[in-house]
Amino acid sequence: MMTTEAMTSATAVEVEYSDIIGVQTFGFWIYLMSDLIIFATLFATFIVLGHNYAGGPTGKELFDLRYTLGETMFLLFSTVAYGMVMLAVHAGKKKAVLIGLAVTFLLGLGFVLMEIYEFYGLVAAGHGPDRSAFLSSFFTLVGTHGTHVTFGLIWMATLIGQVAVKGLTSPVQSRLTRLSMFWHFLDIIWIGIFSIVYLMGVVL
Amino acid sequence: MSQAPIDSTGMSRGTLTSYLTGFVLALILTAIPFGFVMSGAFSPAATIFAIFSAGVVQILVHLHYFLHLDTSSAARWNVLALMFTLLILTLFVGGSLWIMWTLNYRMM
Q1: ipTM of the complex
Q2: Among B residues 68-97, those touching chain A with beta carbons less than 8 Å apart
Q3: CA A178 to CA A28: how far, in whole Å?
Q4: pTM
């Protein structure tokens, strides 16, 4: 049994740790803002170069919107699944956290595999990034997003291991919170990509 | 561990209701622009308007329901940092497009 004194100091540690998590969370938010600038410049590049086809294929010829909608659903379900993970973290349910992370991981993996297959099909058909300025900027923008999602998956696999081995300790909770921000952020970037690259590419 | 240490930080609050509300809204706001483009039943101007308005609203929905940004004091610095980033972003994107389109026009 804990004495009152020990419990008080334990509470003090918890309060102190929540301050640390607050600083870490804010610092990660600042990182996300810098990442947003990177994506903004890539979006600007795509908008400037997006219609320079150099006699090659246009977006209207290349994009299958049903396929894009499939990718969008994988990522949206994945981001909501991560929301469920955070609810389980708050409730302290370790097993639910692990199941939720596994579901989120598989949905995210589905998105990445769909994108790799799409890129592979384009390059195999001779529509690689070297074909035109449109395709260069397309691969750079969409590929940068896909790389982010891939690193998010590596991070998530690491955290599945940490939750399983260490349990929901304060540092692990802090990392889970930051990954949730990263994951939701990437879904927001994807809204910009399917709107500007795919939908506008088919309309214009 | 009844009281999780992350409870007192600004970024992590959410309830099942808020996540599900955000999810349903996001589904609708994804279906609208895809429906406009895939049906092909609307004029290009109306379609472009639908894509951009649904996109902007969906981004706001995600920021509110998934990243829990609001006007509370806990999220204030996050919102301020976002506002500043949006200012920089407008300069970068708007400035680049302005320069490149003017350049394109003058090189014609």
Answers
A1: 0.88
A2: 77-78, 81-82, 84-85, 88-89, 92-93, 96-97
A3: 7
A4: 0.90
